[in-house]
Amino acid sequence: MSERSLQIGLVFFGALNLLTGLSQLFAPGWFFDNIGPYGLQNDHYIGDVGAFYIAAGAALLLSVSRPGWRPPLLYMSAAWYAIHAINHAFTVGDDNKSDAHGIAQTILLAIGAAALAYMASASDRGESGSGLPGSRGLPPRPPDYPPGD
Questions:
Q1: What contacts 105, CB < 8 A, 6 or more positions away?
Q2: 3-class state of residue 148 by DSSP
Q3: Is residue 74 part of a domain?
Q4: Does residue 136 lie in a domain region?
């Protein structure tokens, strides 16, 4: 995966999470009616979840210029989306709009989880060209290290 592709993915998921969180925090009624129509509406809880989305989105956006942040943030995001997709799979019938709406959300979350996992793995292996192999942010050792061996 190229550095540019990874940056585009980080901006996409960062902006998606940031916009989702902002809509939850500042327009919880709209969010409930249009995005997350599950169970009874609780504006306070929707806003609390929005605060997490905002923080996660901002962190992904900041990682565009901080390659060492990427692997842990991307692995965490992949796990979050995967668990979120599993939760949706078990509650498809609880979607107040329709089963099709719930199924679509489940599929989109699963695709997001797979994309984030791929980005995490590529970032962790240093495939993005960022010069940071692995999540440690250390340059590779020279082939003759340690000297004298």
A1: 88, 95
A2: coil
A3: yes
A4: no
What confidence tens digit (pLDDT) does each residue in 88-127 have?
899 888 777 788 888 999 999 999 999 999 999 999 888 6
Residue 18 and residue 58: Cα distance in Å, rounded? 7
Which of 17-54 are b and which e, b meaning 16 or more Cβ less than 10 Å from the residue's Cβ? Answer: bbebbebbbebbeebbeeebbbeeeeeeebbebbeebb
Q: Look at the chain and report how many structural domains it folds into.
A: 1
**Partners of 38 in the β-ladder:** 95
Range of the domain at 55: 3-124
CA 106 to chain centre: 15
Q: What pLDDT shows up at residue 126?
A: 80
Per the domain annotation, does 15 fall within a domain? yes
Q: Has residue 135 been placed in a domain?
A: no
Average pLDDT over residues 13-26: 97
Instruction: Round to whole Å and give the CA distance between 143 and 148.
Output: 12
Residues present in the chain in total: 149
Q: Which two tokens stand for residue 10?
A: 């980080």
| Amino acid (one-letter) located at 38 | Y
d(CA 35, CA 23): 10
